[in-house]
Write a structure and sequence with these properties.
Elements lengths: L18 H17 L1 H10 L2 H5 L2 E4 L5 H9 L5 E5 L11 E4 L13 E5 L7 H10 L5 E7 L3 H9 L6 H12 L6 H6 L6 E7 L4 E8 L1
Parallel strand pairs: 1-2, 1-4, 2-3, 4-5
Antiparallel strand pairs: 5-7, 6-7
Helix pairs in contact: 2-4, 6-7
Length: 213
């Protein structure tokens, strides 16, 4: 597990209305809850209320649940979401952008950008491009898989309770995850423009908060 291995995930190539995709998204919602990922992101965003009120953006927004909750946390703040999938029914007032992130201009400078279990999908060259795409934000908050052995073991323990898509994608995600310092390095955030706080959890999350110096 010394090096990242990025393999396509099954869910990314299934139609949004495919029964297996729908089941896998439900699985992922439960896994996110058990890991506390979205709760952690929302707590971190609330630590920066001034930046949040200038605007919040989620990339890889998926089912829209997280960005919808951020919009509820800050009812007067603009909230945008980017994803290949069409706008979900539960996105509320979120401004939804469907399409390839690399083909869309970044939002106006300022505010907070969040990503939950999204950045591990990309190889190093794409992460460099993403780092440039997000340069205008004040705060960056990321939750990604921690590339370690224990998350693999914990993932296998969930096998009886999830479908085949989730079983495959869970292990692939961990292999594509990050160790300490790798994500910020890949995004180009290691210069004096950013203050970095990075932690990991025993449940398998690698968490990064970057604040513009």
């Amino acid at each position: 597990m010394r090096h990242r291995v990025v393999i396509p995930e099954i869910l990314d190539h299934l139609p949004a209305d495919d029964p297996e995709a729908m089941r896998s998204r439900r699985d992922l919602s439960r896994i996110n809850f058990l890991m506390g990922n979205e709760r952690w992101i929302r707590r971190e965003v609330r630590r920066f209320p001034a930046a949040a009120r200038r605007g919040m953006v989620e990339i890889g927004a998926g089912d829209g649940a997280l960005c919808h909750r951020l919009a509820q946390d800050f009812p007067d703040a603009p909230v945008s979401a980017y994803d290949l999938a069409p706008r979900p029914a539960g996105a509320g007032r979120v401004d939804w952008h469907q399409g390839d992130l690399f083909k869309m201009p970044p939002p106006a400078p300022g505010g907070v950008l969040v990503a939950n279990l999204f950045l591990h999908h990309f190889e190093a060259p794409a992460l460099v491009r993403l780092g440039k795409w997000m340069e205008g934000f004040e705060r960056l908050i990321f939750n990604e898989p921690d590339r370690a052995q224990l998350p693999h073991v914990l993932g296998c323990a969930l096998d009886p309770f999830v479908n085949r898509v989730t079983r495959h994608d869970m292990q692939v995600s961990i292999d594509a995850g990050f160790r300490k310092g790798e994500l910020t390095d890949a995004l180009g955030l290691l210069d004096n423009r950013w203050h970095i706080r990075e932690t990991s959890t025993w449940r398998g999350s690698r968490r990064v908060v970057a604040s513009r110096s």
